[in-house]
Amino acid sequence: MKIQYSELLKSYEMGLHEQLRNFTTGHDFLETWVPDEDPNRSIAGIFEAAAIAKRETALVLVVEKSTADQINYDQLKRETAAFGTFEWESQERQHTISFSFSETLSDELVIELKEKVPSRPLETRPLKQTAAAPVSGAIHPCYLEALSATIPLEHEGKCETSPPLEHFESTSSGVTLSVLVDNRGKVREARHSGTIALETTLLETFCQVIEGLPLQEAAEHGALRLEQKLRAPGMPLPVAGILTPDNADPIFKVPNQLIREIFLARVEKTGVVPQKNFWSEPIPKSWLALFLEQKISAISSVVKQRLEAHGLPLDALTVYELKNETRLTLDENQKVVGSFLLELERELHARLGVQVEVLLAERQDKNKPREKATKPKDAAANEASPLPPEAKGV
After folding, report:
1. Are the C-beta atoms of residues 95 and 71 closer than 8 Å to each other?
2. Strands 2-4 and 59-64, how do they pair?
3. More confident: 280 or 309
4. Pick from 105, 144, 243, 246: CA 20 to 30 A from residue 20's CA?
5. What angle do CA 325, 330, 334 make, to 5 degrees?
6. What is the DSSP letter of 15?
7. How confident is the model at residue 125 (pLDDT cuts 50, 70, 90)?
8. 79 CB contacts (<8 Å, ≥6 apart)?
9. Mode of pairing for the β-strands spanning 357-360 and 327-332
10. Could you tell me which of 61, 104, 99, 65 has the C-alpha nearest to residue 80?
11. Which of 385, 314, 329, 324 is nearest to 362 (CA)?
12. Rounded to two decimals, what is the model's pTM?
C-alpha cells in the first residue's frame, strides 16, 4: 500500500473540522492515529498504528521534500525498531519510505503498543486557530435578533475549583471559557469572561447550552446547538448544504474552539480515548408524567402556531401518532417544505423541553379503481379463484 503523507494530513484536517463525528482518514488501520507537529513522531505513529492492526504487507509512505528535510531517520529507526524496518529513497521532490513489518510481532508487543495510544493521540491534535468574532461587522441576519436581546448574565466570571469536580479552562483572543466537569464527564458548570457586547450574549447562551451535557457532546455538537438556539424561527439556513460551526458564521468559531480545547485537555489528563458518541437527551420526567392526550394537545398547539406563522392552514398538518414518547407522525393534508419540519422539531424542543422526532405519515392511494387496476396478475387470480384452506396450508 502506498500513502501520500500530505494527502493523509489534508484528509485528517478536513474530517476533523467538516464531519460532526467519527471522521476518518480513509484507512481503517489509522483510526487511532493523530498527526504530530514533529514529522518523526507523526510518521512513526503511522507505522505503529499499522503494526497494532497487524498489517503484513509493506507500507510505502511518500513524503514531500519540505517535510522529508525535517525527518531524522536515525530517530525514526529507533522509534520503529520494535515492530519493523524501513528503507528510504531520496528523490528530487520527495522521499519514499518503505516499511516492512516484523514477522515475529507478538501479541504482548501489540498490547504494549495499544497501551501507549491513550497518552499520545491528543498532544498536538491540530485545531484551527480563530480570532474572536468582531462586535461590529457582517453577522448573518438570522442571528441578530437573539444576539441583540438583553439577557441576564448568570454565567459571567470564572468557575471556582470545587473538588471532586475537575476545573478546565481555555482562552482565545482574550475570551475565556471555564467549566467544572464531574467524574462521569458531564459539564456541571460553565462560565465565560473577557467578552464584550455581542460576544457576551453569545458566550452567555453557549454556557446555558452546554451545562448538563457530557463534555464530549458539548465539544462535538455544542456550537451547533448554540447555532440552533440563536437562529430566528422561520429564517433560512445561512448556507446551503451541510451546516457546520465553521461555515454558519464566524461568531461560532471561538466558542467551538474553546470547548474543543477543554475536551482535549481533559482527554489528555485522564488518558481515556474518546469513544463513538451515541448520547441523546434524556426524556424529562415532566413529559413522562403527562397523559397521552395532554402530550398530543401540547404538540398540536405548537404545530398550529408554526403553521399560522408561515401563513399555512391550521389543518395542513395534524397529529397522526405519538410513539415511544418522542416519535411524532403527522398527517400531511397540504404539502409543506422539509425545512418546516426541521424548524418544527426545533420549536417543539424549545417549547416542550423534549427532543421530538417529526415524521410524515405514509401516503396511501385511496383510489380503489386504480388500486385494483394496478394489482399484480397473480394476486388478482388468487382473488378470483380462492384456494381452499387445505391448499393454502392453513
Report:
1. yes
2. parallel
3. 309
4. 144
5. 165
6. H
7. very low
8. 40, 41, 44
9. parallel
10. 99
11. 329
12. 0.55
